[in-house]
Amino acid sequence: xxxxxVLASGSKGNSTVISSSRTRVLVDAGLSCRELLKRMSQAGxxxxxxxxxxxxxxHQDHIAGLSVLARRLNIPVFFTEPTHRAWVRMLTPRTTMTxxxxxDHMQREKEARxxxxxxxxxxxxxxxxxxxxxxxxxxxxxxxxxLGRSDDAPNATLELPIDPDEDDLCAPDSQQGAAxxxxxxxxxxxxxxxxGIRFSIGDIDxxxxxxxxxxxxxxxxxxxxxxxxxALATDLGYMPPNVKAALKRIDVLLLESNHDxxxxxxxxxxxxxxxxxxxxxxxxxxxxxxEFLQKDYDGAAAWIILGHLSESNNxxxxxxxxxxxxxxxxxxxxxxxxxxxxxxxxxxxITL
Length: 352
Ligand SMILES: [Zn+2]
Ligand SMILES: [Zn+2]
Hints:
Elements: E1 2-8, E2 15-20, E3 24-27, H1 33-42, E4 52-54, H2 60-63, H3 66-73, E5 77-79, H4 81-91, H5 99-120, H6 125-146, H7 166-170, E6 190-192, E7 199-201, E8 204-210, E9 219-225, E10 228-233, H8 241-246, E11 252-256, H9 261-266, H10 271-278, H11 286-295, E12 303-307, H12 316-327, E13 337-340, E14 350-351
Parallel strand pairs: 3-4, 4-5, 5-6, 10-11, 11-12, 12-13
Antiparallel strand pairs: 1-2, 1-14, 2-3, 7-8, 8-9, 9-10
This protein binds zinc ion (ZN) (2 copies).
């Protein structure tokens, strides 16, 4: 048995549950923790049964509820290393320093280190070296100050793209919330995978594949258990050969059908955003998806779920029509049934 339950799909949040009879994983956590738990219960998926969370890429619509949900369920999160690093950077408050401030900071660090070394090994080579470096930096700082590199930038900017109330809402014990905010990048456990290299969680074999998209190291996944294969391929600018190759012999396929080209062209987005969506690291159009289904797809799937539909630049019926027309000549009579994934509500689970 394998089951796919799409909890949400679209630019306001993505999340899908993949289960075998023994293992259950969540792919992406792009809604708040509370909303994810609500949708899982609506769809009959017990959150307590989740074994892990897998992340395709670090865009907000794929990670919004990640840290809170992972902490709440106390389960590991699987990323590629570049995606994890990009995510940590996104959530880390950034300090903007001027050159003079940076020098001052460096000097103080050197001095502190020199003092610590001098205390434990006063005559060592390292102590002498650190003291010398500290003197050099002090000299540069003095010169910089003299040249009038004044400090006119704001001292620090804090960027925390997480709803500050989120932890309280989703904390296991709501009494705890007030005391201390946890580090937003803290996760109970982090595991790394590499695109192209198969790994397993429980009895599900997982093959991640690279997708062309403007993120650090984005990927799609093929899941296999008990002879059934399910795949997720959204957030890709075009269909490169490696993705076409990965999507062979898939029984349930969640595939992006993001926008109608004309609706995007005439739609409300500023031109820069239109260019980004249309680019080779943006999103798949209905047309590109149809072209894949017509020319490269092997016709093996029982179900094709069209996902990541744009609310501003697509109409569900246009996406469906394009895909169904492209599939028109496929020989499988019982397969290739087309479903549309929604932004606002979970789809009924698909079980094979
Ligand atoms: Zn994305
Ligand atoms: Zn996305």
